[in-house]
# Entry
Amino acid sequence: MLAVSDLRIHYRTLSGSVKALDGVSFSVADGEIMGLAGESGCGKSTLGKALIRLEERMQYVGGEVSLDGAAVPIADNRAMVPYRFRKISIVPQYAMSALNPTRRIGRMIDELLDSRGIKGLTLRPELERRLAILGLTPDVLGMYPIELSGGMKQRVVMVLSTLLDPSLLIADEVTSALDVASQKKVAGALVEFRDRGFVKSMIVVTHDLAILAQIADSILIMYAGKLAEKAPTRTIIEAPAHPYTRLLLGSLPEVGIRFEERRLPGIKGRPPSLLAPPQGCRFRDRCPLAFDKCAVEPPFVEIAPGHQVACWKADAHAEG
Amino acid sequence: MLKVENVSKLYRSGAFGGKKTRVIHDVDFEVKPGEVVSLIGESGSGKTTVGRMILRLTSVSEGRITFDGEDISTLKGSALKAYYRRVQGVFQDPFSSFNPIFKVGRVFRTLRREFLADLDDAAFAARLTGALNAVGLEVAALDKYPHQMSGGQLQRLLIARALLLDIRLLIADEIISMLDASTRIDVLNLLGDLKQRGLSIIFVTHDLALGNYISDRIVILQKGAIVEMGATEAVFGDPQHAYTRGLISAVPQLHRRWSDAELKDLGLVTDTAQAGGRLVAYRENHAVRVYS
# Structure
């Protein structure tokens, strides 16, 4: 299981540090698929990346991460090496750029395993078995990436990323670039791998709440570098307590809703700049329920078992 | 207004270009003034190619495309320019439509030089303000660099650019796929407002929920051929072709969770593709491809 407490990551820029993650605490249980959602720039991808590799401009400011009871040294690039791929793995957004275009896929995988001191041949039967689970024949190993469709490449990268049965898998916007049919296959593949125990827990980062409604056990909503709400999937979809979650859900056109009959409202305004974030609740300026007390930052508290919210009016909501 | 008449596209393939591959089969539909028509299909269904042929970015191999009765493939020089005054496109990735070195206002100046050179400064400024207001942006936005704006804002700027020209048809190719849910709906509502002002729109997408929200008519494409088309309510309410049903069931919905079996079903929607067949009228305003 994964536990993150008070994690703070900033980006160094010429105009100061951008507080992309500003005190984030949550946990993901074994066997849990946690969806992580929010608008662009809310910090969801930063969180996903921070758990596996801090980029050059990302600055660790504070907080702890532990996986299966042991601390993970995320601030130390070298100390993270034994964790990557073996214990924590990632499926990046663009599978096309994760595969070497000049190598046949099988050879690329062998080279990768070789560089980690693993004999590719010993894993070949398992590799083929897992490809078959996702509906891919062993033939793909003899192909170049250009010969596969986007969805197929995404599934190949998934098999590769999870080949060593990592404890945590981060899936970063894996369905965003795909059309609905391939999207569904990749979503199904994520669940399949969790059910078969190839991966213990999973964080699925996406802006697409409808996909999370299909595959996630719980959903964590982020806003402007902070946690807004976390709850089991059903609760988030059917009884959201944070006004931001409600507005986000209300801006999704579902099959059957027509512009002429019902114009969806959207969310007015834009998220605040994270160079100098405002005091108090960061959603205050866009929130239809904002009142005086919102000038003080609301704590992220549990309002029902497994349901946490950072909003002064959350209780009233849950009851009403 | 716009008629796509039995259009096909063939590409040369094989080692020496000796073989020909047909990627668009006999596509035939019409767009009326003030109508939103969605072209829906998976990647490789040919929806983007059809849009590009209408914009003359790709040539037509067989059949013809007419705008107000005029075959667009014959347009040259000033006639072609006049066509682009009426028909414009906006594409998926807004960041690649701007030069990152220059402020975003540059695309409007380029447009003025090409198409609106006869307007004086005051008239141009008035028109520019009008177009920007229509998409919900301030003139001050023109002084920013592309990286200082969100994808949704850039996409709205590109729509404003098209509106400067008094266009009658907008080809919107996956313009919201890369945007957030909250900005997506803003752009969709903007298209809806423009439609109410009389603009025709061809909305190219893979997402049926989005197509359903905005369009009057829907054209479903599979492997370059139309498999079903008709009024939005007809196609959604009573889908006849297996491919349409497959696409509808693949759209994730908030309040209906896929069963385990549905989720893990790896059946490829494209595998059901059959060659040949013909479109027959199923009901009024609803045609389906049958194979017999």
User: Anything to note?
Assistant: The domain at 2-205 of chain B is CATH 3.40.50.300 (Rossmann fold). Chain B has a mean pLDDT of 89.
